[in-house]
Design a protein that fits this description.
The protein has five helices and twelve strands. The chain is an alpha+beta fold. The chain folds into two domains: 5-138, Hotdog Thioesterase (Thiol Ester Dehydrase, Chain A, Roll); 157-249, Roll (Thiol Ester Dehydrase, Chain A). Strands 1, 2, 3, 4, 5, 6, 7, 8, 9, 10, 11 and 12 form a twelve-stranded mixed sheet that branches. Helix 1 packs antiparallel against helix 4. The longest helix is centred in the first third of the chain and has 19 residues, at 25-43. The N and C termini lie far apart (42 Å). Keywords: Fatty acid biosynthesis, Fatty acid metabolism, Hydrolase, Lipid biosynthesis, Lipid metabolism, Transit peptide. Residues 153-248 form the Acyl-ACP thioesterase-like C-terminal domain. This is Acyl-ACP thioesterase. GO terms for molecular function: acyl carrier activity; fatty acyl-[ACP] hydrolase activity.
């Protein structure tokens, strides 16, 4: 089956970029979700919209895997492409690709989605009629995905953050892009200036609510010339999200 593919062009504004004039990873993720939302608005039927509204359910992000040749630059026009590649009873896997103006692939990302019952705050089964318009392949086996490396918090650097009102999204929890901001902000400015992220995986494990304070832990590992940072977001003694990113020295 050929998946339903959606493409949209955007020009990257300066205020979404860092001091190196490349887009923040958290802002890139927001663009991806905007594109997937536009596809859903285009192909979703009234029946599907009623399902989510009447049963108080919503798509949520459970994980990302990034493969980054380079991040889009300030004032660059890029094309975002997305499609749902596969789903099973509980999870849907959506691909995101970003192309430059010459149609060179510069970013590839796989996101794992689930449907949450917003009343019970738990993941529920994906109905076949909800998945059908995306023309994704059904596979009853749950896909084996990469996982972040473990982090020893007692050996890690950390920063504390208060959850702001603006961090909370329509699902009444911290938006997933905010976790990326917390994680990367815990790195020293000199490291971020001298390195570019080239791949990574992030897993969201437990929601963060508005009333909480969180700590962002990070540890840098260098093995056989490879530079990796391992991250954890914790509130109280609960781990809310984990990630590992690989880096290369900036040219």
């Amino acid at each position: 089956m050929t998946q339903a593919t959606f493409r949209q062009q955007y020009t990257i504004p300066y205020f979404l970029c860092d001091r190196k004039q490349t887009i923040h990873l958290s802002m890139l993720v927001n663009y991806m979700l905007k594109v997937s939302g536009e596809q859903t608005a285009q192909i979703a039927s009234e029946q599907q919209q009623t399902f989510f509204r009447d049963q108080n359910r919503s798509w949520i992000i459970l994980a990302y895997e990034f493969d980054i040749k380079r991040l889009p630059r300030r004032d660059e026009t890029v094309t975002f492409e997305t499609y749902a590649s596969e789903y099973n009873r509980l999870f849907c896997y959506r691909e995101f690709k970003v192309y430059d103006e010459q149609e060179n692939l510069i970013v590839a990302t796989t996101a794992t989605f689930g449907i949450m019952d917003l009343t019970k705050r738990k993941i529920v089964r994906i109905p076949e009629e909800i998945a059908a318009p995306y023309q994704a392949t059904y596979n009853k086996q749950i896909r084996r995905t990469n996982k972040p490396e473990p982090l020893q918090t007692e050996q890690a650097l950390h920063k504390a953050y208060l959850v702001r009102y603006t961090d909370i999204d329509q699902n009444n929890h911290v938006n997933n892009s905010v976790y990326l901001t917390w994680m990367l902000d815990a790195l020293e400015a000199d490291f971020l200036t001298r390195h570019d992220v080239c791949s990574g995986v992030i897993k969201f494990e437990k929601e963060v609510s508005q009333v909480e304070q969180v700590s962002s832990y990070v540890q840098t590992i260098i093995e056989d010339g490879a530079i990796r940072t391992d991250h954890a977001i914790q509130s109280s003694t609960v781990t809310n999200a984990r990630a590992s990113f690989y880096w290369q020295r900036s040219v």
